[in-house]
Amino acid sequence: MLKIGWIDFLNTLPFNFEIAGIKPEFEYKLYKGVPVKLNKLLRNKEIDIAIASSAEYIENFQDYLILPNLSISATNKVHSVAIFSNKQLSDIKEVYLSKASKTSRYLTKIIFDIFLKKEISYKELENYQDIEKKSVLLIGDNAIFFSDRFKYVYDLSEIWYKNTGLPFVFALWILNKEIFYKKERQLRQFYNILMESKEKILKNLPNFVKNFVKTEKFSREFATEYIKNLDYNLTEKHIQSLKLFSKYLQDVKIIKKEPKFNLLNF
Ligand SMILES: C=C(O[C@@H]1C=C(C(=O)O)C=C[C@H]1O)C(=O)O
């Protein structure tokens, strides 16, 4: 049985092997939730593998391995990770951070500390009441959903791209090192299934969106354009970006040790 962590956001659609009609030959169970929940399940070894926060890998890299060629990244705008505000950036003094995120919370700190050199007080975003009166970091479907309440959108990967020229890697397929030896066969098959799903769904995206995306939250046109704009690859350039992100995380004292990026050689 392979225990798989699944971020329940629109942006994981291209990995959805079930809707792609690909059936694994092994038994599996999906554990759905926001990134922080999956990071925790993975760290506690309650699941084997997950699409989880890239920052979770960076912080605990000794325990993990990465599936190659796969990520959720964005070159320039991501559209679903941003600081939303009705204030101009220069007037923002406090930011309420989404509790669902790890990577984007850390990126927010790097943006203010290193790129903008601006002191900010950080608070937890406990609920969505009167959200338009605050400056908030939102991720995933909520970011898309609440965006029209705000005059200004400070897109985090756009800011990263302007400062570094690199794509920003939000999520990776991370697995617990020790399960590789126990479940190598399933993992290899799962990797092939993810690669196949990604290809199949992205090739025929409007059709998959039409059949599988619920339209209460966003229009089909938006969903298609949003996914099309994301980058699901993991190349040398993405690794370079992860290394730079890690260096900045050391500079702002969030991590102590420089991580190694251990990709499975599939
Ligand atoms: C692109 C996104 O990136 C997400 C952000 C994450 C984080 O901040 O920890 C983790 C996984 C990603 O799915 C998004 O939420 O829209």
Automatic annotation (TrEMBL):
- Pathway listed: Quinol/quinone metabolism; menaquinone biosynthesis
Any GO BP annotation: menaquinone biosynthetic process
- EC identifiers of the protein: 4.2.1.151
CDD domains per record = PBP2_Sco4506 (cd13634)
- Main enzyme class: lyase
Mind telling me which Gene3D superfamilies this protein's record contains? Periplasmic binding protein-like II (3.40.190.10)
- Return the Pfam families for the record: VitK2_biosynth
Key word Membrane present: no
Recorded GO terms, molecular function? hydro-lyase activity
Superkingdom in the source lineage: Bacteria
Q: Is this entry keyworded Lyase? A: yes
Q: Which UniProt keywords apply?
A: Lyase, Menaquinone biosynthesis
List the catalytic activities from the record: chorismate = 3-[(1-carboxyvinyl)-oxy]benzoate + H2O
Xref: PANTHER family: CHORISMATE DEHYDRATASE
Q: Quote the function comment for this protein.
A: Catalyzes the dehydration of chorismate into 3-[(1-carboxyvinyl)oxy]benzoate, a step in the biosynthesis of menaquinone (MK, vitamin K2).
- Check the record and name the HAMAP family matching this protein: MqnA
What does the similarity note say? Belongs to the MqnA/MqnD family. MqnA subfamily.
Q: What is this protein called?
A: Chorismate dehydratase
The gene name on file is mqnA
